[in-house]
Amino acid sequence: MTLLELVSYLRNNILDDNGGQGVDWTTYSDSTFDSIQLRWKNEELVANINEAITQVYRRTNPIKDIITLSLTALTQTYTLPSYIQSIENVKRSTGEQLRVKELDELWHLQDLTTRQGIPIYYISDIAQDKLQLYPTPLIDDTLSMVIYRYPKLKLDWSTNDLSPELKEEYQIPMLYYAASLCYLKDEANTLDPQRANTFQGMFDREFPFTSIYSNISKRRKSNRSMRYGGL
């Protein structure tokens, strides 16, 4: 479905907010919103749809991808693309895999920021979009990274003929979360906590919540015990 179709479905089938018979709500923007009887602007619905899509990604990990990261000699810390959800595997151009470590596992090393050589470990801070290597690379290189990711682009009402990067069967259930957010809008004709909870429950049944961060933690603990036992 295109963004226009998603917003139309949300307005007509879930929110019942189409401005009345004969109203062409598709032509209205922020500057003309007050002239019609709509409770939510098109841009508001798009923002809620974007957040709903993010929630689906957090709960289902729908897209696994491979990206590359260019390394620069004597540079230890790198900025990651903000769309990365989690890092699954990392290897150098020669094929050697790097192993993941938590910062608190390496902080005691006196040469943590000074040792140079072939990188063996990586520390990822997805919340800050950062990746740190140990040791610091001596030469330019390229890392290949297997990741789970979020959509690379946010939907925008100005290009409402585009479709979300989300499976077709996920798109209508995803709108339940968007509807929940709509009913949390703090205005007299929109705020309805009971309806918000109802749609949140419908979304939760479609996409049961499993913390991605919990899964990563479990995987790292498992890898640590089976594959290596510290430095």
Give the oligomeric state of the chains in this entry, treating copies of one chain as homo and distinct chains as hetero: single chain
Distance between the termini: 50 Å
User: How many strands appear in the DSSP assignment?
Assistant: 9
The geometry reads as elongated
As a whole number of angstroms, the C-alpha radius of gyration is 23 Å
**What's the tally of helices?**
6
Ranges where pLDDT stays below 50 over 5 or more residues in a row are 211-231
Q: What is the number of independent domains? A: 2
Average pLDDT score: 89
Structural class, from helix and strand content? alpha+beta
- Placed side by side, the strands forming the largest sheet appear as 1-9-3-4-6-7-2
